[in-house]
Amino acid sequence: MYALVEYKGKQYKAEKDAQIAVDRLDVESGKSIDIDTVVLVNDGDKISVGAPYVKGAVVKAVVENTFKDKKVLVYKYKSKKDYHRTIGHRQQYTNIRITDIIVG
């Protein structure tokens, strides 16, 4: 059984006991969250597709930890103008573990 959920503007495939890295959440580690923006639910023999969301479907998850991704370097350069800049960015993510998928 799996579900496609939309969370913070992105879509993720959620399976029971799966770990998903989402954009950083301001929630303490160990807290439970409910995601009710479920786009699709597949329970093996029946597929439910929402318009835009499946009614009564909820994905329950537990917040685990927050981490930073690897650094992305951006280099700006203009020829013949003596202009060059190096900028780095590390995106922050939060791991969540899917505990249950409920179809209403």
Short description:
By secondary structure, the chain is mainly β.
Order of strands across the widest beta sheet? 2-1-5-6
Q: Count the beta strands.
A: 10
Count of the domains: 1
Report the C-alpha radius of gyration, rounded. Answer: 19 Å
Summarize the main sheet: 4 strands, antiparallel
Estimate percent helicity. Answer: under 10%
Provide the low-confidence segments as ranges. Answer: none
Report the order of strands and helices: EEEEEEEEEE
Protein architecture, described:
Helices cover 0% and strands 62% of the residues. With 104 residues, the chain is mostly beta strands. The protein has one domain. Strand 1 and strand 2 form a beta hairpin. It is elongated. The two termini are 14 Å apart. The relative contact order is 0.31. The model has no long low-confidence stretch (mean pLDDT 95).
